[in-house]
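Lecture notes, unit on protein representations.

Consider one protein chain, 215 amino acids long.
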Amino acid sequence: MLIIGARGFAKEVLEILNELNDIEILALYDDINYYQNDILFDKFPILKNLEDASNYFKTIDNRFTIGIGNPILRKKLYEVFKGLGGNLTSTISAKSNIGSFDVNIGIGSNILSGSTVSNSVTIGIGAILYYNSVVTHDCTVGDFVEISPGATILGRCKISDYCHIGANSTILPDLHIGKNVIIGAGAVITRDIPDNSLVIGIPGKISKELPPINF
């Protein structure tokens, strides 16, 4: 497995793979930051250019996962490393709580320990469910959505692509959160939110319009 990134969230992903005993041929990718001897924790090699990443996919393991938390950047990195022949792969902690019925988790999702996914839930491509986040029954979470620690999404909600749901925020049932929305930490969302919005407060109110995403 190749983890894209070697700092911050990449270390969280590394711990999941350690839990799963999937670190024997693990490497990381970071072409920006300096590391002594290009090694993390005196054990894991850090690749520094796309040519090395392509060679890793061809000769060692074609799986990769994204160890960076920004939803838009995750999408861009997915396209780059897929283009090199990589196969985006989910990392799901054995300490997470995943429902037994009608649960669909998209490729490349990172689900950390303590997170809960109830029955009849769909999670899109490349999503992040951080520690102690909760997605309850009949919810849909779009592609490259980041759900921060302690956030709760209640029944029958739809979270569209490229959203960032802030730590300890709550989205009440039956709501639709549009594309490219940032929900601030601790916010309580009581109504639908349109695309390209920053929302803060209790109850949540739109404080800023965000630039639309153009891929």
